[in-house]
Predict the 3D structure of the following.
Amino acid sequence: MTDKKNGNAFTNNPIVRAIGVQKIVVVLVLIIMLVFFGVAAPSFRSYASLLSIMDYTYYLAFLGIGVTFCLITGGVDLSIGTGMFCYALIGGYLITKQGMPVIVGILVTLLCGVIMGLINGLIVSKGGHAPFLATLCTMMIARGLGAIFTGGVSITWPLSSSPEGWTRSIFKFSLASGTKIPLGFLWVMIAAVVMSIFLNKTRPGRYIIAIGSNKEATRLSGINVAKYQTLAYVISGFFTGLAALAYSSAFQSMAPGGGAGTELNAIGGAIIGGTSMSGGSGSIAGTILGVFIMSVLQTGLPKVNLQANMQQIIIGVVLIIAVYIDVLKNKKLS
Amino acid sequence: MKKKLLAALLSVAMVATLLAGCGGGGSDTTDTTETTDTTEETTDAAETEETADAGTAAAGDLHLEIVSKGLQHAYWQAVLNGVNSKAEELGVSVNFVGPDSESNIQQQVQQLESALNADPSAIGLAALDTESVMDLLNRAVEAGIPIVGFDSGVPGAPEGAIVANCSTDNLAAGGLAAENVYAAIQATVQAATSPVRVGVVAQDATSESVVNRGVGFITKIAELAEADGKTVGMASVSNERYVTDSGVEVNDDADFIIEVRVPASVTSELSAADASAILEQDDTIAIYGSNEHSANAIITANENLNKCGTGEGQVIAAGFDSGAGIMDAVRSGLFLGAVTQAPVAMGEKLVETLVAAANGEEVSDIDTGCQWYTAENMDDPEIAQNLYE
Amino acid sequence: MGDVILTMKGIDKSFPGVHALDHVDLEVRKGEVHALMGENGAGKSTLMKVLTGIYSKDAGTITFEGREVEFTNPREAQDAGIVIVHQELNMLGHLTVAQNIFIGREFMKGRLIDDKKMNEEARKLFDQLGIDIDPTETMSRLTVGKQQMCEIAKAISHEAKVIIFDEPSAALTEAEIDELFKIIRDLRDRQLGIVYISHRMDEIKVITDRVTVMRDGGYVGTLITKDCTKEDIINMMVGRVIYEDPKTESQVAEDAPVVLKVEHLNAGRMVQDVSFELRKGEILGFSGLMGAGRTETMRALFGADPKQSGDIYVNGEKVDIKTPQDAVKHGIGYLSEDRKRFGIVVDKTVAENSTMASLENYMKGIFIDKKKENEAAQKYVDLLKTKTPGVDQLVVNLSGGNQQKVVIAKWLVRNCDILIFDEPTRGIDVGAKSEIYHLMNELVAEGKSIIMVSSEMTEILRMSDRIIIMCEGRKTGELGIEEATQERIMHAATLRN
């Protein structure tokens, strides 16, 4: 008795519907991109390229998983880009400049994320601010905070050669033979599976979807909307903290005031993966796939001898296409 | 994309507000100088002799004001050490200040104003932004207080406002890196039957010092390769500013190709991608990062690629400045070496020049020098004093 | 009919400037379907909102199952057993049917949600009700009718003792209404108390046992349905208000020229190959169920939404309307069905709203000529008898009917000859409604032409010279007022593919 007027044989195929049309398309695009870069840049066909792609994937995937929750509530978290830098700067500062134990730096990094997420969530849910504006403000605050905390200098996390450098093997493990294992992929996958179950199989996850689908109806169903809306931002903050660890592991150093624009790569990844800007629908698996598109682009584009500013333009165009597809989807729904 | 534009506009507004909010504070008088002992020990004997003359000239109790770009960074601490030791030696009092961060222009303006109000004998200045200190420069000229630029100096200052500059000659410093790198690859270049490639990872194409360190490297290494009878060209992917400033023409078919990559914004992940793109090309034989950020990017990229080193078939890598990452890379042989500026000497020469200017002597620009350091010489006291993690 | 389960007595509620409920009584018994009737704005929905705790009452008592109660939110009412099936469906379109039914009280298996159990329980509920819906289907893929069935199933799963249906049939086809009635009778037989809010007189006679009539926020009376006639109920509902005489024949002159001609208009799924003509001095009614595509047709015609194809002629000349500005230029004005969103700017004054569509005529250099603006606004306030303390009053402070008049003034100031009234009397009180009708008749007498989109059958039959009926984006019927009856319109309105 369902309304299948808008589909065709392909989109109504039960297997296709279970996986989602968009995800299938994204996988195809991903394959096409890999083939393209492989042909256009011989150096792309290497294990080292895979490692590079992974370096980009870790932090973007964590950011993407977190922000997917905000997007599903119909909101957005713009503070994740500068936030990631801010937390990494603070954590790295404590370790390298204050001589604190590495574990303290890691915990503080995560804690900063959670606190910022809580602030975002409360401003949005209790303060009633538009998520776009609220997190735009905290985006600026995070940028300033990181610079003030470290006194305006760049921070380099412990080198892999130093005794504190073990943090780096969490994401990239070196075998005795010198071969690097992208261990971080495992953590990203575990995080994705756990958060996917959380989103689809637990009450908080279900209510986060419900809020994005119809906030008023959710409220009328007796659900504490403010609580679960806040939770979405706390999740985003926590994963931004994880992203900060992944970033400092892959790229060691960060300058104060950086990170603006990174949030768009993560949000773009989520939208490419089928998460809607207007809320109510989205999947962690889709976000991971979308993030892969972004990280393959970031790794591949410099290798095909494109100038840096041209690369930015291409990534911008990809994001416009992704958002446009989202707009089209919503039009079709209404 | 509207969001991004809006974000950009708002960020500008926010930075301005932050700056306005952070005025005051951050000044640091250098009466207590714990670190002077070490610097005194390492002061060059010849220089002591030289400054002895200046010392006699400065019989009166001169007061100097020095406004730096910041105090936190170890580089500035090294400059401060040089200033303190020389000041003590010459018996002049110095007030050395700097803003909380290198983006806090307004705070620096206030500090320069306070310095002027103290009616010093001379002022040393490393301006964050020439435009915002223009009025104060004019006031100094009217009051007859000589200003000596140091580090990056006061670029674009009006004629006569700055009596001299004590700074690293960045073109020469880049050239120093080129000479050492070329010495290591010369045999390979001479024996090469197919084109070879040398990469430069640069942080940006706007900062005068960063660009000059890159351009100095390019012009020097091009000159050396041409002397060996090779045709030299820039890779077409290279940044235009570097092509124009170095005068080396774009030619992807040359025997000796120089490739300069500049990221769209200064973040580690973008620079690492640039470094990877250079290192992954089969014909790359050397790579140079023109500041700490870029050199770190080479180290990051190499973690995945494992190509840098001084052994057979490896890519020769060189950096600029110090810092934990680069020093570790030099020590372990990953980097052939790196160029460091001489901040201690800069501090010393700055004080000498200020004293001379205060005494009405004719002063001229001084190159405070730079050093090439390798695993072998980096523990020499003369070099070690200029290295910091 | 069994014992009394719910009694509301002397319920009083005021909002700033409006006495919404004036000592209203309502009594519901177990095993009865109790109709709550009244014109738009009579206070039916407000009464139900007081009952379910969305509004707090100023005075009066509510007794439920023998105890006095006061709910502070719908959840409390729900837990006690009073559930409302809303006119605007409160569904979560992205979740499945079962997930919607059990939202907020999911079945758990450990810490995870047991979707399988929820699907089974939902299926049991549907079996019980004799409804054929797949619990795993995504809510937004169901038809409006099916979605309503889900709402009912949800209500029943709450072990409701009283279920309130707020205009449930507004968007349903005849077949769906039959199915709905079957379910309602079934619920009644299970000794539930049912409150049924509707406008449709025929339904009331078919399904309800008793009728309580409200008018202007007041209680008029309660009747046994089978003992009264339609006319009795209508008289109670309408009371003192005398409407314009219903039209029995078209008032349009035989030789009146065609002022607007639309041919083969296509705009998405909701507007498919729609063609019609509008003649000078005519009121052309557009009838159909909710979601028939009438508003979408008007928006496409007005240039508010893009159209794929179709030709539009104004006074015989082909025009190109891509944006609302184009439409206004050709003398077409549009009164949106959702005044607050599209029609007026609530925090601007009457004068500012009046001249909004024709500001270029009220300029002095680059500045707005305030004096001229106020004069023009005052002229139409007088003409339309808009009740406002002055033209500098903020529109937000006016009643719905007077807000509507400000919107009309906006287009009259602009000198539009073709006016599209989309649900012109929705949400305004009975007196104002009569004035709007009067005004529309005056406008056409002056030679303006009106397209009136309305979901109220009585309004369509009372005002139109000719009626066009739409269903699922297509034009499915066209009737002159002489031949139009409620039955014929309903028939065309449910002509699906």
Summary: Chain B is about 50% helix and 15% strand. The two ends of chain B are 40 Å apart (CA to CA). The CA atoms of residues 85 and 383 of chain B lie 17 Å apart. Chain B touches chain A through 57 residues (CB under 8 Å).
